[in-house]
Design brief:
The chain has 239 residues and is an alpha/beta fold. It contains seven helices and nine strands, in the order E-H-H-H-E-H-E-H-E-H-E-E-E-E-E-H. It has a domain at 2-113 and 177-222: Class I glutamine amidotransferase (GATase) domain (Rossmann fold). It has a nine-stranded mixed beta sheet. Helix 5 (77-89) links the parallel strand 3 and strand 4. Helix 5 (77-89) crosses helix 6 (103-109). It binds zinc ion.
């Protein structure tokens, strides 16, 4: 299975705290733990030509992971169109943290995807609300993160097909922090944690969720539906 980890990769260049936590970038950290599970992983970043997502790469990608934050507007609309087309064709998409405001996520959701936020080094507890789902496999009752950014309801997303995690924050807010959608033949998972100044992607349970999600989101082997004018399967009696 071919996985591309896309990252804006800007905080890593300007913020030493982020660079110290993720010396190879957030994309490099995610790629490294995915390689442990023998996925074929490559990375792509905003400042590469075609944002690292030329046609030949997109065409063969089974699952795309997306982390972006301060430069959503710099993502070329043409690339966003191409990613959307690939999702509708069956490419899986995993949108992380501040990717909730990415052009691709907003386009696929059709809503503002707005939310409340606060940076106050507070505790987050992500409760598993669907323990039978493959993405929550091996996680137990909850994941606890000592310090994270708060995202709070209301989160302006369409009603998820499946809600897998609900977060509680020390300051009192709650948030739908893990949700799935299908768009066309593509499977989408939004997963909240991962603010750049915290070591969230080094947490083993967070890594497990993302690994599980990559497995779940791959639907490249599913049959292609037939559309358009159709011949009847049985002879239709004249009436
Ligand atoms: Zn953040």
């Amino acid at each position: 299975m071919k996985v591309v980890v896309w990252n804006e990769n800007r905080h890593e260049q300007t913020n030493q705290v982020v660079a110290d936590i993720y010396p190879k970038g957030i994309h490099g950290a995610i790629a490294d733990f995915l390689k442990e599970d023998n996925f074929e992983v490559r990375t792509a970043t905003l400042d590469e030509p075609d944002h690292g997502l030329p046609d030949d790469v997109l065409k063969e990608t089974d699952v795309l992971i997306w982390w972006g934050h301060q430069a959503h507007d710099e993502v070329d609309d043409e690339i966003v169109e191409k990613v959307q087309k690939r999702v509708l064709e069956g490419m899986g998409l995993i949108v992380l943290h501040s990717g909730h405001f990415s052009k691709i996520f907003k386009k696929l959701m059709g809503t503002t995807c707005d939310l409340k936020w606060r940076e106050a080094d507070e505790k987050e507890r992500l409760w598993v609300v669907d323990p039978t789902h493959p993405i929550t496999d091996g996680i137990g009752e909850f994941i606890e993160l000592e310090k994270e950014e708060m995202y709070g309801e209301h989160f302006d997303i369409p009603v998820p097909d499946e809600l897998l995690f609900v977060s509680w924050f020390e300051g009192g807010e709650v948030f739908r922090s893990g949700s799935t959608y299908k768009r066309g033949r593509g499977k989408i998972f939004y997963f909240r944690p991962g603010h750049e100044t915290y070591a969230t992607y080094h947490n083993e349970k967070i890594q497990r969720v993302i690994k599980n999600a990559v497995q779940w989101a791959n639907s490249s082997d599913t049959p292609v539906p037939v559309y358009g004018n159709a011949q009847p399967l049985e002879q239709i009696r004249e009436k």
